[in-house]
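anyone seen this seq b4? input:
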Amino acid sequence: MIGELRRRSADLPQLRAHQADATAWDTGDYDVVQSALGIFFFPDMTDGTERLISRARSGGRAVFTIWRGV
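predicted toks r here
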C-alpha cells in the first residue's frame, strides 16, 4: 500500500508516506498521524497509542479508527 500511495502521490511533495515499526519510530513533527484499526496490535495498546500521538507536531492531529463494542 505504501508503494501504491507513493506512486499515486508523486506530484504531491508535501505528502510523505512511511512504513515503520510505530513502537520504535523516533521521528516526529508530523501534521497528521493516522492509524486505521492498527492500535489493537500493539503489545501495549496504551503505550503504543501515546507514542503515535507524540509523533504529531504541536497543533497537529492524531486520528484513530477503532472498533467499539456495542
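The helical segments are 2-8, 45-54. The first strand starts at residue 30 and ends at 36. kinda curious what u guys think
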